[in-house]
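Researcher: Please translate sequence to structure tokens.
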Amino acid sequence: MNVRIRHLAGLLAGVAACHAVPAAAQDRGGEDEILVTAQGQNATQVVAAGSVGVLGDKRGEDVPFSIRSYNEALILNQQPQTLGQVLENDPTIRTTYGFGNAAEQFVIRGFTLYGDDVGLNGLYGITPRQLIAPELYQEVQVLNGATAFLNGAAPGGSGIGGSVNLIAKRAGDAPLTRVTGNYTSDSHFGGSFDVSRRFGADGAWGVRINGAGRSGDVAIEDEFRSSYVIGGAIDYRGAAVRLSADLGYQRVKVRGLRPKVTIGAGAAIPRVPGADANYAQPWTYSTLRDVFGTVRGEWDVADNAMLWAHAGARDGSERGLYSGITVNNAATGAATGTALFVPLTANNEAAQGGLRVKLAGAGISHEINIGGSHIWQVNRNAYDFLYGPGYVGFATNLYDTPVATIPSSTLVGGDLDDPFPITRTRLGSVFASDTLGFFEDRLLVTAGLRLQTIAVRGYAISDGTLATRYDEDAVTPVVGIVFKPTPTLSLYANRIEGLQQGPTAPTTDTTIINPGEIFAPFKSVQYEVGAKFAIGAINASLAAFTTDLPSAYAIPDPLVAGFNRFGIYGEQRNRGLEFTLSGELTRGLRLISGVSVLDTELRDQALVANEGNRAQGVPEWLANANVEWDTSFIPGLTLTGRVVHTGEQQVNAANTLAIGDWTRFDLGARYVAVVGRMPLTFRFAVDNVANRRYWASAFDTSSQALLQGAPRTFKLSASIDL
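Model: Translation complete:
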């Protein structure tokens, strides 16, 4: 590994030497200006602003919600391979995986956000699901809290604790031509390009094309990943009309994914294997392919009125041979493995539009939003459970994993060669809101309503015939207040709801006495108060919130012995405090940091033993600090460091198993040199410097499962702006 790093560093240094010109021939003043400009453009930032759904793009101090945006310089500098690695910088979010496959899920305020429900340019269902390569995006926006009014119900049924919205790259005012090469240990190499220009009068037309490719083994032993993406954008900025179109392609493959570890019945928490250990089977893989795009138009029909419309589509295809591991003996690591083959295709479309009008009179301002949205989704999939004879799987071991033969098929559902539709989902809504401003907009009051309809058709996996029908609606209101006692301080409060499709009692479990029963949509209620402070380049925020969400599961039927009844029993209440601080504390010293405290409680539970317990996989404490220092003793050198802390987590609802807290340290540096009057940036980083082994997450909605944290990982890259 060290040999590879030294070899690549030598190659990069050789490239720099070949392009360097004699010092005497260089304009020292111009060179210094190039260096300072490049170093400034490399600065990672968190901006207290972003898209607030139907309310539009807003500054954080003007809305009664917690919002922040991570910039593309952070993505370029940290070289993350997935969206989850970008969100490692956020003190209110932690990342886990789905069962057996490479599907990132994000835990925000103690509730899950599926990768399916990450937005793209404000639209649901258009972003690639499971794994999202971050190279195509110029901003990653995080909005904490429920967003049923702002964004509508997420089609995947998650996002109760917050949302993530990706903004595709667009051409900036300055021309850009950038080429990057990168390396990640153990043997993962890649490169990218990024080109943008503006044309026409006053740069009205913009074009940006960027792409990236990388492939090879990562720091986890024998885990292979590859990713290839390309994106294009064109936009027009006229006096009264603004148009844009974004198109993207992503292909990701993972082989030998280190899976989550399920804790078998009666087993204890096993000790953590070596940091780079892999207990996956070499025949496991996941291949993801997505083609996606959005278009948007805005028309200023008057000085105070704007019509807007937005639409997008995605065509996705997945094939994977997944495998899980269940530990039956924590001391020896003895375990059982199973396999599952799933082909899947999806076609999603989304559209929304509206009218925004600004009025003023009698000392009161109004910003009125009215409009509607619609989402169409078709999910085609099949499955082949590979459990072998007797459904027992195969013998394996957490600490000394043998190569097993793929078990024989035990249960097939659907057409494996050409999957037919399993679900068709339609979500429609209409919304209206008014934000009133008093005292020259020092006091802002927002009130709104959204009527949401959710219609789902489920089809039998055996023959594709209609099996279940779901058609429900709900109204989700919002009320928010912002008060600005000083230009640098804003106080806010909100009451907003979350909405998700109501559950359906399982039809494949023969012990369920009410299979197929459909329940009304879940509505969660959130109350939040907070404060935001901004002075110069420093932003700080403090929020206190409480959210109640109904719980659904099966319990023994009180009337029919031996059967279970699925239903809504009790709720999960999450309360917490969040503090974030980011910005340039002093010239050349930047900070991204924050702390979250979460108190979760299971209430009114049908299973009395769980009453008052903490929710599974939700840490009590989260803390992050990311520091960058532009040194004065070596011009062009920036030193970086990050610490990530996660508190204790319960592994089950009974609170009989728990994993301890963990802290990870990352270090890095980057250096900007001027080569032929072009900035060349070298970056070096080490994640998990101490190579600590730890269970990172116990969050799982269906089992007692643990995700192991990543091992020590070296990253090296070089970018040149031509």
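Researcher: Any highlights?
Model: The CA atoms of residues 249 and 693 lie 35 Å apart.
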